[in-house]
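Write out structure tokens for High frequency lysogenization protein HflD homolog.
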Amino acid sequence: MSPIQEQLVALGAVFEAAVLADKIARTGQVSEASMGCMLGSLLARDPKSTLDVYGGDDLNLRDGYRALISSLERNPSALQREPLRYSLAMIGLERQLDKRGDMLQVMGSRLDQIQQQVEHFGLVHDNVIAGCGGLYQDTISTFRQRIQVHGDMRFLQQPNNAAKIRALLLAGIRSARLWRQLGGHRWQLVFSRSKLLKELYELTRS
């Protein structure tokens, strides 16, 4: 994989987290495989490659790629507005998180505890999702900038769905961090659109 493709895998994962959060907010449903891919990315330590963070392939990131493509193409009829809004907010929150070494330390030790829960219950167990959602609430949710998720109140008010959405936002911010560590930055989304799109079309075809 080229460096730009590695960046796009991580950025696609930010958009995937946003698409899934939007799906839960509107329908209350999300596939276990997609949820597992994003939760697993939070716990990936010492991955050999960017794809390893997401389970070794990008099959569960395809909806994220499509949402990213629709944002870069700037086609109003295809644009997924809420996922785009959530994605940009996650990228912004990651920048704030980067300045908070104390918070990053707390997150590291809490993720170690969540890893133990995973070994006991399995990756997509309610307890694990609640643990990730609680970690988001205790850390990222304390920033002044908040992500307001819109959807159907019947689904948003269910505690399990709320925990899933928070866990996904946490995973999205983790992927935003990875994207930046791989050399990604917001200006690319403005000035390198055609280059990014060419690579994304390639990724979605492969």
